[in-house]
Design goal:
Blueprint (H helix, E strand, L loop, with lengths): L1 H20 L15 H37 L14 H6 L7 H10 L4 H6 L6 H6 L8
Helix pairs in contact: 1-2
Length: 140
């Protein structure tokens, strides 16, 4: 248990240092009036990539904090869903995990966007076939 605690604390410290050192990319141009749209798109892509990486690091830091709290509570190594013991190999591979393999998938399903439920409620349609009734380039 002490080994996992030290490993998690070290990972958390590294992540927090990276988050503190992270800088948001700024636009490379003084004015956007004479910029090519691709230059603006490149700047925006860089900014969004950095934001996504920082968000991932923040999520990882939260998972580590929850695992450290579980160690303090004495529940580390037990699945939070079913209470079964998490195999040592899984803990060594992903020390911040709080679920067994069987319940790890359920956690991912809970994170799915709500819109997916709405979209899957409608029967699938084949829009291409409907549009093709009016003609296609292969008929020329």
């Amino acid at each position: 248990m002490e080994k996992f605690k030290r490993q998690l604390q070290q990972q958390l410290q590294e992540i927090e240092q990276r988050l503190a050192a992270s800088e948001r990319p700024v636009s490379t141009e003084l004015s956007n009036y004479d910029n090519h749209p691709a230059d603006n798109a490149s700047d925006l892509t860089d900014q969004l990539t950095e934001m996504a990486i920082d968000e991932h690091r923040g999520d990882e830091a939260e998972a580590i904090k929850r695992a450290l709290q579980a160690i303090e509570d004495g529940t580390y190594g037990q699945c939070v869903v079913c209470g079964e013991t998490i195999p040592l190999g899984r803990l060594e591979a992903i020390p911040q995990t709080l679920t067994c393999v069987e319940h790890a998938e359920q956690k991912d399903e809970e994170l799915r966007p709500v819109e997916e439920e709405l979209l899957s409620a409608y029967p699938p349609s084949d829009d291409f076939l409907e549009v093709e009734q009016f003609g296609s380039s292969s008929e020329i």
